[in-house]
Amino acid sequence: MEINKNIIEALKNSKRVAIFIHINPDGDCLGSASALKEALVSLNKTVDIFSDSLVPENYLFIKHLNEVKHDDKVEGYDLLVAVDCPDAKRVGKYAKYFATHENTICIDHHKSRENYTKLTHVEIVSSAALMIYYYVKELTELNVHMAEAIYAGISSDTGCFIHSNTTSEEHAVCAKLINLGFDLTRANDMLFKFTPLSKFELTKRAYTNAEFFADGKIGMFKFTKKDLSETGADISDTTGLVNQITNVNGCEIGIMMYEQENGLFRCSLRSSGKIDVALIAEQFGGGGHMFASGCNVFGCLNTAKKKIVATCIKEVKKLG
Ligand SMILES: [Mn+2]
Question: Which residue, 145, 244, 164, is CA-closest to 202?
Fold first, then answer.
């Protein structure tokens, strides 16, 4: 992968850097932000990570993630960097700063996107963290904290190296990272096994109310706000659940719908390989990758469900 030299220059020339991640953060944006902060701190920069959402507990083992800021105001930074964010909306309440600040960078790996920064590097690869690996390596010498953070990012977005976006490059880079000596077992336990009881209870509900359409080619389940409050779960507990229904034999599209507020559902879409679910999400103003995407669907539960399922049925029919 070729890095963008202008981005390296901008990072080197900065003194105070603010890094932004997306709402409902995942291992990829969190690991990318942590590694970039550690690299810039090693170059004596002052760096803060800003997030509109809380950092899920199981990522707090990664350096700098217990220092993430949630302040409304972002002032006094000479450079803003967004990682893993295809459009300004993804940084949530901080979007306005990307509209006004003159020095902004985006490093991202999503296919559907908008241009919202002065300098942009988009590469259609498995993870933002894989891109960050090459940037960090150019900036400074990798240490164990950067290695652990980048590993967290790459392994998260590849579903622990099982999604179709996994290539030998992810394995090769992660082998080098592991050789830097972080606690691999702890990292994998925190990233892939960590299951609060609330998540287990939410999973039970999800799979109990799962439905299939189009002869089993579309699988879906949903959560209301009540499901979350009654199980004590939060949105981060839904991570990964949609993959399981997509894995059912014959299922081409997996859908997870959850209620964000009255009349607004967030849909996570997964493809088992034949259908480009980014194109489906785009029809609702969302986007993402070919095999994993997301969008907002408006309406009451039944209306929202009908809208997304009908759109998916159209795509499934094209398969013949
Ligand atoms: Mn990502």
Answer: 244
113 pLDDT tier (thresholds 50, 70, 90): confident
Give the Å distance between the CA of 181 and the centre of ligand 1. Answer: 24
Using a 10 angstrom Cβ sphere, with 0-12 exposed, 13-18 middle and 19 or more buried, the burial of residue 133 is buried
Residues having C-beta closer than 5 Å to ion ligand 1: 28, 84, 128, 157
Give the predicted TM-score (pTM) of the model. Answer: 0.91
Going from the Cα of 163 to the center of ligand 1, the distance in angstroms, rounded, reads: 13
- For residue 110, the CA-to-ligand 1 centroid distance in Å is 7
Domain C-terminal end among 166, 193, 220 = 193
Contacts (Cβ under 8 Å, ≥6 apart) of 265: 222, 257, 258, 259, 296, 297, 298, 299, 301, 304, 305
Q: 84 CA distance to ligand 1 centroid (A)?
A: 5
Q: Mean pLDDT of all residues in the chain?
A: 96
User: Is the same domain home to 186 and 54?
Assistant: yes
Please tell me the distance between residue 90's alpha carbon and the centre of ligand 1 in angstroms. 12
Residue 320 has pLDDT above 90, yes or no: no
Express each pLDDT in 216-256 by its tens digit. 999 999 999 999 999 999 888 888 899 999 999 999 999 99
Ligand 1 centre distance from Cα of residue 32 (Å) = 9
Residue 171 tokens, joined: 């394995």
Distance between CA 81 and CA 99 in Å, rounded?
13
Strand 253-261 to 287-288 pairing: unpaired
- List the CATH number of the domain containing 256: 3.10.310.30
Nearest Cα to Cα of residue 109 among 94, 93, 95, 120: 120
| CA 302 – ligand 1 centroid, Å | 30
User: How many Å apart are CA 157 and CA 130, to the nearest integer?
Assistant: 10
Q: How many angstroms separate the alpha carbon of residue 28 from the centre of ligand 1?
A: 5
Q: What is the CATH number of the domain that holds 115?
A: 3.90.1640.10
